[in-house]
Input
Amino acid sequence: MAAPATPLRTPHKQLVTAWLGRFLARFAAFVQYVSARHTRRPDVALRNRAMRAASSRGVDRHALVRATRLSAGQVMKILAREPADE
Output
């Protein structure tokens, strides 16, 4: 068999980084789902860290808005490390 004419488009490291970003976005959504039931919301800092980590690994803010069901303004404040209205 001949080798493919074009190499793989994404190296292994980029694939892992993209996968980790998607995982962190889903983790932030899970934390949002679990902590939304509590009145004191003890896991907001964990959710925010997961959202910032996912964003730094290439997940765009629109995907974070869809995953966490927060408003776009809240997501932008969280990514900018500003206090968000909860």
Remarks:
- The helical segments are 12-35, 44-56, 61-68, 72-79.
- The chain has a mean pLDDT of 81.
- DSSP finds four helices and no strands in the chain.
- The two ends are 58 Å apart (CA to CA).
